[in-house]
## 1
Amino acid sequence: MGKKRIIKKPKVIILRACGTNCDIETENAFKYVGAFTERVHINEVLKGYKNINDYDIITLPGGFSFGDDISAGKIFALRIKSLYRDFKKFIDSKRPIIGICNGFQVLVKTGLLPYSDFKQRVTLFLNDCGHFLCRWVKVKVNKKSPSIFIKGLPEEFYLPIAHGEGKLIADDIVSQKIISSNLDVLRYIDNPNGSIYNIAALTNEFGNVIGIMPHPERAFFSIQFPWKTREENSVGFHFFKNAVEYVK
Amino acid sequence: MSLLKDKFLFDVFKVNLNQLVALNNKYGWSLNLEELKIIVQYFRNISRNPTRAEIETIAQTWSEHCKHKTFNSPCVLTIKDHRGKIKNIYRFKNLFKETIVYATEKLKKSYCLSVFKDNAGVIELGKESKWGICFKVETHNHPCAIEPYGGTETGVGGVVRDILGVGLGAKPILNTDNFCFAFPDKKYNVAKGFLSPHKIISGVVSGVRDYGNKIGIPTACGSVFFDDRYLYNPLVYVGCVGIINRKDVNKEVLPGSYIVVIGGSTGKDGVGGSTFSSQDISENSTSSHVQIGHAINEKKVIDVLMKAKELSIYSALTDCGAGGFSSAVGELASETGALVDLDKVILKDRDIEGWQVWLSESQERMVLCVYEDKIKELEKLCEVEECQMYIIGRFTNDRKLTVKWKGENIVELDMDFLHQGLPKIERKAIWIEPKMKNKISKISVMDYYDRFEKIISDLNVTSRRWIIQQYDHEVIGQTVLKPFCGVNEYAPSDATVIWTGQVCEDFSLFNGFAVACGMKPNMSDISPYEMAKYSFDEAIRNLVCVGADISRGAALDNFCAANPNNEKVMGEFSLAAIGARDASVDMEIPYISGKDSFYNQTNIGSKIYKIPTTLLISAIAPVEDVRNIITPYFKKPFNPIYIVGSFGKGFGASVYGRLFQNDNNYISPLNLKQNRKVYLKLLEAMRKGFVISAHDVSEGGLAACVFEMSLCFIGADININEIIKVYNITELEVLFGECGSKIVVEIDLKNEKEFIKLMKNFPVIKIGYTTKIPSIVFKDNGNILFTSDVNKARQLWERNVL
């Protein structure tokens, strides 16, 4: 599995849990860019009915996994940690993992971001406003980041956010390292939640794992935009297309 | 009063009426004298005493909440003029059948796939579409008055389960919410033991947020209305739209199949909820009737059901709402019969009686009729999704409801008696017309701007962003027209438009549907009849503004009223129902579901606080191509602005009236037959591409409407002289009046001539043009009435209430 394979139609596993709720639109986005998709419950993996290493891309969609009890994404992260070997194998083979919203929270709490070594270094905490927030925000791409997901994106564009716990927190050392190695993929132009350095998305050092707080799958088709713009339509498309192109 | 020690509460052969009434009060059955007598007679006929479980089952099944007996009663309505002279007397054998059902049956629309028989009505998504859409709105007023957070959560959970229970299970894809509150910015002397409007509002909004967001259904359509009379009785309407394959619209209960419950465990929570909702609120009402929801349990139920439907595991299902198993199993088995063993129920409470298990309203449960050979498959599915399931019995073919607890039968009732035995009582209704006054105090032109500012910062006009932003209105990625649209999402939308390609997993389809609502409760004091028509018209007008196909649309009626034993309350209510009937018939848009909620009144000491009769009309209509919808904000400078529709005299039930002229209660009646023609013509102009923005004139009048259209940096220059001349009304009525029904449209300059040609013979007036600068100017010919800097006015309008 370690070496690069030639795949015609990449297989994407939409890994869900109780309370995941952005699985259909995320699956549709991958279908649209030509992937073969399957929605799989984490329990099916834990029971051994499915194996994540049979897939080329892992997606952790948004939602409220296990009700976000304890803290957002925490329980889902613990279940993933019990699959440590499988995930390590997947990441070592440099296959892409994309976590959106709750998926980002899960990746952070599993310790797959910003470093994919199963040690949690940062967290996503309650928004400064104190509650869930759903609106469109402007973000800026860090073109220097190693992320494989950002090819073709305009410099600045709008994406919708919908989260209660989206404020990225890290201590000074970790945050300096994130910035100096360009692990911040996206930054808010008008910070909606109080994230450090206005960070909206993180990558790991290799660039195959991304966690993103806004929802690219909700900015995928031009009709999803709240107002008509020239260049920014269907900007979310690139994230999914890049993942599929990468594994092809 | 002697009570038998064991399971029998009284001896039907010895009990007298006084004892019955005392028992009724003691146990809170909310049964009336007639009903008590019939129950006693039934048990005398079968020569035995009733068990507690039986009486409780009957009380729940016959409650106002479950059977809507007031609306289904015979009714005599007397209408008097303001001097007390009788003008008219109407007699109804069944008020509901002769108003709401009458309209739908008269219209006989072929696109209605199912009406009035299931949890919610279903209409075709579009011509010959293989999909249907269903829509249901519920109220959860009583629980929200005393425990707003839990009350709202369980309200949302309940209406979503209603949709899950339609046919073989519709997929819920959109939630709506409409609230009526007292003003949170006003000081009230709130009685001890009751919550302040501020507390109620923040509880209700967080309830919708926490539950709605977690189950992954966008909450994207709603309204809030403020009036002092909702102080002790806030109204909380929660709605849900579902999508269902046409082939799944019907269900069938097969004798021999298993009765299976999926979802939450059963406890003592919410026992007696529907009887509690069928009486007035008082100082003694306790919040122990109200539960807290568990959204993730409901989400699991949704996930299991959607898969189980694909695998054809069950042949029928229904939700567990008011009355718990008693009404769920009772309804499903009404044509067959059922044998239930309550010892199989998974309990979360050990100290519980059989009748409590049977009637418990524990949340997040659905009851399924599962094929014998599919049980294993369902078990596996539930295991993966971590969803509980328990088999509680079988459907039979003996037309009897038999319930066992600890080996003994605690219920043995004939289905026919349970469902048809309810006696009907004639209701008396009276309506006294108030004297109408159209007084308009002249003011200096200098004061126009000040009044405009006060109006756009009034809570019935201001932005609802403080609520909407807390709701996930984007989940599923299908919300094409969101609650806010335009640059930076600055402008408020008239309706919500959903693209169904996402849930149908077909990206080549661009069809969808639009949902909107209308209510005008403060008009009930002046004319409940016109109130209903205004509400209906507003909902439909909102759909027209986005370009939805109202000729294939449907409406929902949700009435709320005070205690119907009061003849005046019944008068308001029945007249509103007649208005609702005429509105539907005239607009040729049928009702597919609805609900009524009574006893929205609070008795504190000797004081009675009543709500005005409130009718929420929710409307839904297909959208042929969601890429072509119309949005409300101005698009380009130098385009002509027209007003379509007609103005009316009066400031009755308007924001202006309440703030500055409360001695004016005049309202102009609506002609909905004419409105239908105008709307269809305007839709034609939209399809031809002539119209590029449209917004309806509602609270705050024309001035507020034009202001909202200008929020995205394109201003307007408006001259109202022509309107004054045509309708012979004052400047103030044109600017701030809310009578009549009108839509402001921006026309693409290059199509103006064709637009005028098309709209010939229709009420259309040119009122100005769009401008480059973000400001609005109102003129009466040469006189500038007022100008407003939109960016400054925006600060006033974007008020945060919480």
Note: Confidence is low (pLDDT under 50) at residues 1-6 of chain B.
## 2
Amino acid sequence: MSNTTSNTGFEGFGAKAIFVRYGFLIIIAAFVAFFSFYTDSFLNGSNLLNIVEGSAILLILALGMTLIVTMGGIDLSVGIAMDFGAAFAIVAMKEYQVAWYFAVLIGIAGGGLVGLLNAFLVVKLKVSPFMATLGTFFIGSSVQRIFTNGGGPISYRRVAQEYRDLAVGDIAGIPTEVVIAFVVLVIYFLLLERSVFGKRMHAIGLQQSAALVSGIKVRHYLFFGFVFASATCAIGGIIGSANLRMFTPLAGYSYLLDAIAAVFIGASIHPQGRPNVPGTLIGVLFLGIVANGLNLLGLNFNTKDALSGIILVGALALAVMQKRLR
Amino acid sequence: MTLPVEHILEMQGISKAFPGVQALDKTDLFVRKGSIHGLVGENGAGKSTIIKVLAGIYTRDEGTVSINGAACDALAPAVVHEAGVRFIHQELHLVPYFTVAESVFMGQEQHGVLGLAGRRMRRRAEQFLKESLNCELDGKALIRTLSPAEKKLVQIARALIDDKARLVIFDEPTAPLASGETEQVFKAIRRLKERGISMIYVSHYLGEITDLCDEVTVFRNGATVAQLNRVDANSTQTIIHNMVGRDIDALYPEKKHSDGARMFSVSALGDNSRFFNVDLNISAGEVLGVAGLIGSGREEFIDTLYGLRRAEAGDMQFDGRELKLKSPADAVANGIVLVPRDRRNDGLVLNMSVGDNINLASLDEVAWARMEKRGLSLKRANELSEQIDIRPRNPKAITRFLSGGNQQKVVLARWLATQSKLFILDEPTVGVDIGAKVEIYQLIKELAANGAAVIVSSSDPQEMLGLCHRIMVMYRGEVVEDTPIDAIDFDSLLALSTSGARVASTA
Amino acid sequence: MSGTNSVSRPALFSAGALFSAAPLIIFIVLLIYLGISAPNLTDPATINLILKQSVPTVVVCLGLATVVVAGGDDVVSGGIDLSIPATAIICAGILADQLTNHGSPLWSAIALAAVAAVTMGVLNAVLVVAIGMTPLLATLASSVAAVGVTKVITSSRRINVDHPFVIYIRDANVAGVPSAVLIAAVFVLLFCFAVHRTRWGMQLQAVGGSRDAAEVSGIKTSSLVAQSFFIAALAGFLASFFVLARGSGSTPGSEENLLLEMVLATFLGAAFSPRRIVTVWGAVLGAVLVTALSVGFKSIGVNVFWTGCIKGTLILIVVASAAYSGRAQS
């Protein structure tokens, strides 16, 4: 009943109100404090830059996911779109000696293909986004196995230096991948939070039938959304392939849950519990901080994996709890 | 010598306040044992609040309640259930793929040694439906294959199957039914009365109340304004007078006669399933009513006019051009807009702000380079809220928390912002309080006066007669009448809707 | 089936019925094709092999079907548990580690695995019912945590198990039928009975059919949903023995394939049910058929990398045809 009397939901200064408003930020602060206390190097300038750099690819994927969740869906195939981006770009350069910038475009188009399949399934065949993208995920994984004969990486040592620089270069001292992620962030911010397009996307995600009756071309928007999100994810894959100078099949899978988690953590910070671009950024940085901190603690690989999984469950639970308390 | 009247339910001096609203103000409700008691009132008069108080969902602020002579201080759902009070909610609450027997016994399944006693439950359900509700149904039939009336009876059977019910509260039981089907439900209710069960019957349909009930309580603004101990066909006037508290004619603005140019016409439109061969003509400045019961094809026809359904036959002309609608977006682009009947699902994005909802259909006008100019959009939302008096006057308020009337005004404001030419209003005043109703009627008149064409689709004959210049009536998917308003009256409109002919065949 | 049904049944050959039968038809066509191109597919030995291979999937499907029955078949807002394979893997990891690396007695290994399964069940139930996460997100997250913990337990290595109990499940035959199949059959019967033939099961179905309807009928919906997740974890625990037996030990990363087969089989099973809903026995039948396809494709020499593609496409056909017939009905 309380939510019917208050429009914004968090007037007041009690402990609960503070938790509801800032709960997640407090948790982040606690983790930062913990890591800086137990490790010497966590608060170093260079380590902070490491965190940001290490979060670039996840941020790009999470932004694509933000778009999909905004319009009321979920995308389990972001990793596939990422892999396809990398595969198309590397193969284009290796087999067809395409110029690096062309390869980038081909990679983005390759990711877009994954989105095209999702869009077809969701918009034309009316399959629920979860099932559609799950199907795409399995088909996409299988295609990669077939193409690489079981999952061996395709490496191309002689990539153009400019392509390599997408991952390892810098612009005015800032790593190029951070700059790229920042540009994508700004585009998504304008698109989803400031533009007419974003407002319509939010309307579709909140109440599709009302959006339809108000004259929004719902099917067009959904179609565009799936393709655009997948194309965005391909950029992440291209950066990954530039870093290693190879295409690693199925590499994108490891980003899936982190991307979903970042979006939902972000939504928990929003006054109405909506997915939003600044929130996603905070979610990504939180995951980056945890991963980096666990590394610095010197834990072994398996323990780190287990701990970050458990922290993820806790963080998501907290995020949802915070959202529900409003 | 007079014996004291024996009441199954006495609710005396009940008050209940919500922040900002006195929902119930020293309200009384007495239900005589073995009677069918009608409870009527406008939306927001307090009917549902007092029922929720009785159900133990709301706690009353003051007043006394006694059920079957025993005072109940604390009402809780379990206590009320134990006392033999059952509620038949407006929603059916049935699972489409369950069988009749499974649905009737939901929550009180019977168990044998080897699992469920399927056959026993089936027989008992069939027997109960037949003997207590006058309805022959196969216990194995799936709910989704039943008619709406049969579903309603299954729902009633579920509430009563334990044979412990003494007082049953029906909330708008005939709302989803076509008129032919209501008789089946009435028969069941009369049968229950014969079996000594007391009932409270909540309905907007006064005809049903006078037909069915032995006594009536009328609510207005949270207070009991009339208690009728005897009901006959002449009670309708008394009830309306008490419900509304003023003369009903004053509700509708004076009609201005229209003679504008032909704006929109439809010929031989059909979808090959729910409506056929429908013609419609409307001119600028005209208010056209489309009447018809649920199931008459009226809703499907309206949806087709807006591109929500695909027409399979016929064509549409708008401003002298042929019109092909693939989606609502096409309709809006042509200046045709719809205020949908299901406001909360289709009309509004409830979790968006009032301002966003108002601007949703005309975002490009408050944008620069496709970026929303927030100052401008807020300003425009403010102006429109002012113009048609949306309360609260705060474009940032979340739409979910507005009252029904104000929500409807938000939908209207959205379309006012688009400068459209043809307004289709489907059940424009459902769930709207009387004050907002009058304002919406005034707005409709102004739209027409300013040269728009308005199509009003409604199941309220009074509203149609009060508002429209012309009325067309649909019956079983076809138009059975298209007539100027002065050539039709309440009785013939009702007869046309319910039987397809002007003179109702008296049974 | 007495002939007294007065209500007209939906026409057998309507477009909607045809579309909802599409996955079934495709399956049968595929099986017939495989039966012709690989004649030994119908040998008793091959059928035994198929049944044996399908046992782990069948058992996890029991859990998923229970959750879907209680939560409704809308994958996003309804009931789904993606963590059952992860539960099976963590239990298998614990069993393998205890039996092989620590030489623990069987009962203590089983007790430890059971603790892990209970933890998973409680975790999912708390996340979904108490905290209010969507089951999809909750179980996805808990499965990642479980896989992470499994890595710690097994150090991401394969652990061989040669404990007689596991060998018995793997190799023993009773009257010509593999013991694993017989044990699994008992579980299947138990689940079928509980979900479809008891008061508890009817209430579970009511909750999945309409949460509101169940609520007004006085059913404790939250508690039943929580129980369904708990039972799903139990199914994961039971499946772990068959996972161990099938692989003669625990193998990292085997949950992914199990997950795909589980989801495919369970939702495919809905196509077998006359009411077109997820049922326990439908899921079991689905699991056996999916395994038959895998075995069949392998035996006619189809590249193993293609099976993911084929199964992914099958999932999409199943759900697309369900979506289509759902639209045709409304």
Note: The first helix of chain A runs from residue 2 to 5.
## 3
Amino acid sequence: MKKVLTRIYLIIILIFMYAPIFTLIVLSFNSSKSRARWGGFTLGWYINLLSDEAVASALINTLTIAVLATIFSTIIGTFTCIAMIGLSPKLRSVIMGITNIPMINADIVTGISLMLLFRFLHLSSGFSTILLAHITFNIPFVMLSVMPRVKNLNFYVYEAALDLGANPAYAFTKTILPDIIPGIVSGALMAFTMSLDDFIITYFTKGSGFETLSTLIYNEVKRGIQPEIYALSAIIFVVVLALLLIVYRAPQAKSKEK
Amino acid sequence: MKLFKSKRQAGLIASPYMAWAFIFIVVPLCMVIYYGFTDSAGRFTFDNVATIMKPGYFKALVRSIELALISTLVCFILSYPLGMILAGMKLKKNAYIVTLFILPMWMNFLLRTLTWMTLLEGKGVINTVLEFFHLPTISIINTPSAIVLGMVYNFLPFMILPIYNALNRIDENVINAARDLGANTLQTFLRIILPLSLPGILSGITMVFIPALTTFAISTMLGGSKILLIGNIIEQEFTQLYDWHLGSGLSIVLMIFILINMIVEAIYDSEGGMRR
Amino acid sequence: MSKDLITLEHISKSYDGQLILDDLSLSIYENSFVTLLGPSGCGKTTTLRIIGGFEKPDQGRVVFDNQDITNLAPNKRQLNTVFQKYALFTHMTIAENIAFGLKIKNKPDSYIRDKIRYALKLVNLEGFENRMPDSLSGGQQQRIAIARAIVNEPKVLLLDEPLGALDLKMRQDMQYELKRLKEELGITFIYVTHDQEEALTMSDHIVVMNQGYIQQEGSPEKIYNEPENAFVADFIGDSNIIRATMIRDELVEILGAKFACVDKGFGENKPVDVVIRPEDVELVSPDEGTISGVVTGLTFKGVHYEMDVEANGYEWLVHSTRLSEVGTHVGIKVYPFNIQIMNVPASEDEEAISETV
């Protein structure tokens, strides 16, 4: 009885979470523009979407910014985490305190504060300001996932490598790096998804005429939803699902080999 | 630590980020505070911050707090049993099932909100289905209920994840020990499980309450233009009215709420720490 | 001393189709210190959890004080458990931890205060009332876990590998501590461990388990000196286990040489296993020994030397305070009462047991 009730509860929550998404996917194949009537199956909205230059450029902008922001924030975040062990505890806690600010603060405040900065510096809003903003809010996520790894490092292994004749750089890449790689990878993944998903900070730092997927959708929605957006949602959902399946399958397959 | 030749070397490696954090985190925040406490002539003033007490603004703030609190509560009520069920499964594929519940988090935030526009509209999907079955239709689009629904839908995973993690960390033998010492199911829950999961609950509350309190996209999309939240007002000051001083002043008010939230959490943390 | 307090009757339990306990029956006397001893996965912890009420057996009954408690919830049982890794409530002070069971039973405050003081005194941790569990060492946390259990005045205390996480010195101290506690409280202890030394030091009664079966039970002396099968002999201490032939009563042929022994009733010319403890092997000059061989290995162990002696195709393990250098030719002599004869496993089940050794 208890088991049945918990099953029902899980199913209700899952329906709440997924039914809306599946509705969108169904509507993306509806040839009628109306949400209320099924006008027959069509792939027309997908074709329209793919030939839409605004969507294409927004997609390219989003991906470029996400990739670049991930690379920069991962490098800066990782090196800072490693350097932290050599710093005094006081300086370390100051750095961590400042790093926590963008994570705790509301996105809207982070967004307008950066906007004020960029205006003050007379940086023209667009690609570069969004990239700077994204690197800024991504670094804390990278540090958050690398830091625990760094704290648990076993430095005797590094010293053993030096003792066995390795130079510091070689010892570092052979002993320290492998231990923190998992943290770096998950930090990078987190940064990438945060970047892809961000709307609010991008919205305040983008300026006019430059759109990412998020800001494009926001503009479209204000003008009234076009079925092409449904097609876009369906594609994004399927891509996210596929990426997650790959990420989750990979470690499982490895452990099976063992 | 032998990794660095000196503190200086470590400082050198950390310096790019220290500079970055100063320019892109500390300075911008100082600018918000500067703008918030000055008028357009650069004179010091409390007016911008005090504007929050004016009727229209105050009403938006109260409504924002109200809706954020309701959303947080609903998320909590939905998430806690879910976290208990998931943590109780203790399966190897557990992680897989948990992922199912937080997967929508990776879907674009605006698209998640957009789905509810489509569903709730006057001639939207839900009403079409209701009409088909000759049931009374609903009209909650452009009402506070729709906004709450949008918030809950968007932020639910942020509540599920920390609560699940906290519950999952509790050693099964700690629960067994409570039973062993005579506690019944309810006593075990109230005295052991609930207090031990409190850190997870608190971080879940923060992760739902702050974005819900400060959102402007959800209220724009699901609340129409009639229901203004404090986020909408700040957004308008910056993007339409170009009154950066007032916008910054109101942002300071938001930051005060965030600060209160932080202090509450810090008090809880230090309480645990002091006894330790 | 001889009244049955807990009886397990034909208990079986399996997880995911794997049999953990198979038709296990066991009686535990009131006021005894009983140890369930065996390698990991032998079913000892499962047995303890069934007594504690955290697992339900698939078959069989648990009888406590003449009452069937098989389906009774753990919070209704008159026994308390000290868990592996202590399972203290980390969000409560030491005093709150100890008071937990008493508060549930709505005992008056003054009673609870006295009990806390008494329990902390009993485990030598007076003044720790307001500390948090995380600030204590492993050994101290262990004592608190015991204090938390005993304030409820259980008739039986279940201890699940309580010393497993402690270092050697602490473990030895706690062994004496537990023995003293047992004496002071006058209640039954059921103790689970994989450490044979712990079992021999503390118990009145040892139950040796392997693969869900009880291999042998009895006093520590009996288990050590008269193991009933090769598994028990090998698990309890070091031993030389050799396949031999029982020529007739009181005479056994080991590795081609005839040894006098004290056992009777195994028949004539029957295959048997013999167990000879390493400290019972006497090294003498080659012509004095029943068989002779060469010392091939030598290790100094503090109280004695450990030597390997190659003789008649078997490598004998020998403990002696007298040193014989590697390469020395020596004779081997064993007093008749130091030779323990065991039946060779007959059934397939028993075979399986001895194969895992």
Note: Residues 272-276 of chain B have pLDDT under 50 and may be disordered.
